[in-house]
Amino acid sequence: MNRLLYIILISAITIAGFSMFKQNDIGQVSFSFADFIFETNLLVFSAAIITCLFIILALRKSYAATKNLWIYVSNKHQNNNIAKARLSLSEGLIEYTEGRFEKAEKVLLQHVKHNENKLLIYLLAARATQQLGAHDRRDNYLQKALEAYPDASIAIGLTKVELQLDHAQHEQALATLKQLNEQSIHHPFIITCLANTYKRLNDWDNLKDMLPDIKSYGKLSSDNFLSFEVLAYKGSLSNLIDTSKTKPEDTASLIKNWQNIPQHLKDLPEIIEHYANQLTRLNATDEAEKTLRLFLDNNWQESTIILYSELDVIINNKQLEVVESWLRDHQHNAYLLLALGKRCISLSLWGKARNFLEASIAINPMQETYLKLAQLLEEHINEPTLAQESYRSGLYLLTEDKNNLASNKDSLNSIRGTTSLKIVKT
């Protein structure tokens, strides 16, 4: 467009000048400035104008050519830098993957300012320095990543949490997660990370408090969520007890806390058994026995009957009848028979106790059963020989001398005869 204007202007000047020359009227051009006067004819003036226009046009073309050359050289240089940056990223990734973390850090950062993947480079550099134990440099690279990509604050923050947790910086990770949770409320992965961090810190009360958020936003499977529930409530029960300073009100507090636990958790053997163990730690064995007995009456569980068999408590005849009723479906359960033997001892039912204990041994010899039987034979039935045999069998069982145990069992059976479960009225 500019070139066309120049052509039209030059053509007009040329035509006008030629017309005046034909008429012998070249014309006069005069300029005055202060005391200076410049005069020339129109033809010379026109020629000067045309010459100036050609000079301007040449200068413009020269400028455009120089500018294009500069852009070409600059782009070439920039492309070389970008190529080097990409190569350094690839080499740095290789060094990192092969475990040369110090070299990886150096290579990654060589051309970082020319790389379009600064976020990836800074995150990799942070991971490399993490492996070197340079936590300050690690955090510095994460901060640079955040400055370069402020919109990626959640991703960078979660990377920081991951690295902190990997180096057991649990408190720092928790602080980072809380900050992220304020930035992005109800973010599923942040909530899950918070829950796992509370779990690592054994902070059961805070884990319990955030269970509603975990359920609503954590996107966990039902089994995974249940595992968090179990851990939180078990830990909460444990936190109520300080065994070094046991107080009577601790039992009441524990029972009150138990009443607030959701029913679907109370139906789990793991929760029931944990609660019973906490009661036992507070010497509230009667309450523990009651809890386990009521559970077993409706939900038979092998681990629960094992725990129940370990309790040494006094029960009444009505409670004993409940426990005996379990024999209808579990007459060959050694732990149930042991539990019944111990309950009968507490009620001074020596004959029944002896039958239950011997039946338990016949099914599954256990050290505690031998000990209880020996004490019963020695202290209440006045059979010291059999008592010594039971003591000896329990000792052999403790040292896992199976051959001696077998011979002592044969000795005991030869004296006592074949043992069968029968209820002896006393």
Q: Which word captures the global form?
A: rod-shaped
Give the helices and strands as they follow along the chain. Answer: HEEHHHHHHHHHHHHHHHHHHHHHH
Helix- and strand-based class?
mainly alpha
Strand order of the largest sheet: 1-2
Q: What is the CATH T-level topology of one domain?
A: Serine Threonine Protein Phosphatase 5, Tetratricopeptide repeat
CATH architecture label name of one domain: Alpha Horseshoe
Using only CA atoms, what is the Rg? 47 Å
Mind describing the biggest β-sheet?
A: 2 strands, antiparallel
* Mean pLDDT score: 84
Please report the total strand number as a whole number: 2
Beta-strand residue percentage: under 5%
Q: Could you name the CATH class of one domain?
A: Mainly Alpha
